[in-house]
Amino acid sequence: MKQLKREFMVDVTAVSELSAADQTLLEAAHEAAKVAYAPYSNFRVGAAVRLASGKIVKGSNQENMAYPSGLCAERIAFFAAGAQFPEERIEAAAVVTDREMPAVDFSPCGGCRQVMLESENRNGQSIRFLMQPGSGEVLISPNVSQFLPLTFRLP
């Protein structure tokens, strides 16, 4: 049996060590988490996307009693950016939760990973991605493609 190995590379840093632009992006994601509609899970998530122009588009998770009709914060932010600013590239994105938890236990779901990957492919360049649970350390990925290894792409 042949085994394939793939490394997952993220930086771990304190908020105070981030650039002003990344701190602003994280703050926008935390603002979005405050307005999440999560009466069933009580797991509030916020996301923010920074466009090449510097504009920030926010999204928060929106649950629905008719599960799975709700939508994750990441998809809302990425879809809103694509719908409102179709010609602008996404430079960076952040996802946060107000819940204190280990950083390694907090990451986008599979559906969000696919949406982010397609956005990165459309961009033609990597999307820097930040993740922060609660007020803890920030995980920083240089791209979103590593979140969905062995992806399907049309030749």
Query: Mean pLDDT score, rounded?
Result: 93
- Distance N terminus to C terminus? 27 Å
Which assembly state applies to the chains in this document? Answer: single chain
Q: Spans of 5+ residues with little confidence (pLDDT < 50)?
A: none
Major sheet size, sense and barrel closure:
6 strands, mixed
* Number of H/I helices: 3
Measured on Cα atoms, how large is the radius of gyration?
15 Å
For the secondary structure, the number of strands is: 6
The topology string of helices and strands comes to EHEEHEHEE
Strand content: 15-25%
Structural class: alpha+beta
Shape: globular
Biggest β-sheet: strands ordered side by side in the sheet: 1-6-5-4-2-3
Share of helical residues: 25-40%
How is this structure best described in words?
The protein is of the alpha+beta class. 26% of the residues lie in helices and 21% in strands. The chain is built from three helices and six strands, in the order E-H-E-E-H-E-H-E-E. Helix 2 packs parallel to helix 3. The longest helix is centred in the first third of the chain and has 15 residues, at 20-34. It is globular, with a radius of gyration of 15 Å. The model has no long low-confidence stretch (mean pLDDT 93).
Topology:
Layout: E1 11-13, H1 20-34, E2 45-51, E3 56-60, H2 73-84, E4 90-97, H3 110-123, E5 128-133, E6 138-141
Parallel strand pairs: 4-5
Antiparallel strand pairs: 1-6, 2-3, 2-4, 5-6
